[in-house]
Amino acid sequence: MDTIVANTIDLLVAAILVALVARRLRLPYTVGLVIAGIGLALTQAGVNVVLTHEFILDVILPPLLFEAAINIRWPDLRRDALPVLTLAIPGTLIAAAVVSTGIVLVLHWPLRSALLFGVLIAATDPVAVIAMFKDNHTEGRLRLLVESESLFNDGVAAVLFTLATGGMQLMGATAPTWMEAGKTLLLTAGGGIAIGLICAGAALLLVGRTTDRMVESTLTTVAAYGSFLLADRLHASGVLSTVAAGLVVGTVAVLRDDERSRMTQRGREFVLALWEFIAFIANSLVFLMIGVTVAGLSFARPGLTACAIIVGLVLLGRALTVYPLCLLFYRSRWKVPAWSQHVLWWGGLRGALGLALALSLPPDMAFRNEILVSTFAVVVFSVIVQGLTMPFLLRRAA
């Protein structure tokens, strides 16, 4: 216990120093965290941390998803629901198919391993994306598109990963298998959303009975973690559950500033500040730990060349998702400007969710090491290279 507390304090001190230096150098905060984590590991600074899928899924991901969701206004999301869902659902499938096919053809991985990797790496991670936009103070429709898509395709990827790891042979399956897969998909996704709505409703019912901002904030915390853990316990999607809970709490209470809000004005201000702080702590810990962990990995398998090929395939998959799907809306009110499409493509950073899914694979699974190392390679490339160059694209898009 003492070691956990000491390591947490060490990481938070490092995060504070990185935040101060990054602001002075105008360096994206998440980029600075990963670089600092690598530096801590290489200098053997005494930080001994182990990044596990339980830590990411149970501790880090729920508050990050919830904080992002409560800041999305439902009228804005409803206005752009069609492009958001198009990018999130068919887009995730396209990206996964491109990456999986490329890995099988070029690197000759087994189909099952390639499919698992393609699914877990297909979704843009809101942990990374939202941190990037906050660093660059990006607002408006572009931020809504990127954040909303990342939240929903996070859930889609998690559900698809559940199907893939459940032994579903999606390629060449018989009719009963497809029916079983559809049933599992419906129960996992629909069940997750339903649980999130129920948890949010229960929290809001209690919020309406108090004017104590501490109680209001505690209830939102219970909704964030409770929706995720309950959905996970019932074999539904914890990601979609927390996103649904956050959208409802944000729409009905936190972002509503009229007399119909279920929350007091002081409570709304306190809740927003609290979740911004929690998200800052969670981001700081996870990106520092990514840096510390990647410094200790051996890239002998699959090899640096293979990692470079995989990064290229991931970028290609994202491009074949964004540009063709946005073209569908070219002559409609949902048209996405060209520079915004470039941001959607290059801003498709990967982060904590992909790592959590990769770390959850059984230790004795074939090609697990290749999947894990490749995931870290893609995450580090996206955070450092794409993160450093994103401010230029954001300025042009603005």
Textual characterization of the structure:
With 398 residues, the protein is an all-alpha fold. The protein has one domain (52-397): Na+/H+ antiporter like fold (Up-down Bundle), CATH 1.20.1530.20. Helix content is 77%, strand content 0%. The chain has 17 helices and no strands. It has helices at 2-25, 29-42, 53-70, 74-79, 81-88, 90-107, 111-122, 126-135, 141-165, 175-207, 213-233, 238-254, 265-295, 304-327, 338-346, 352-359, 368-397. Helix 9 crosses helix 10. It is globular and about 60 Å long. It comes from Rhodopila globiformis. Residues 13-395 form the Cation/H+ exchanger transmembrane domain. This is Sodium:proton exchanger. It is a multi-pass membrane protein. One of its GO terms (cellular component) is plasma membrane.
SS elements, strand count: 0
Order of helices and strands: HHHHHHHHHHHHHHHHH
Just name the CATH architecture.
Up-down Bundle
Poorly predicted runs are 168-176
CATH class annotation:
Mainly Alpha
Structural topology:
Blueprint: H1 2-25, H2 29-42, H3 53-70, H4 74-79, H5 81-88, H6 90-107, H7 111-122, H8 126-135, H9 141-165, H10 175-207, H11 213-233, H12 238-254, H13 265-295, H14 304-327, H15 338-346, H16 352-359, H17 368-397
Helix pairs in contact: 1-2, 1-13, 2-13, 2-17, 3-11, 3-12, 3-13, 3-16, 5-9, 6-7, 6-14, 7-9, 7-16, 7-17, 8-9, 9-10, 9-12, 10-11, 10-12, 11-12, 11-13, 14-15, 14-17, 15-17, 16-17
Subcellular location: Cell membrane
Transmembrane segments: 6-22, 29-49, 84-109, 115-134, 155-179, 185-207, 237-256, 277-297, 303-330, 342-359, 371-394
Pfam family, one: Na_H_Exchanger
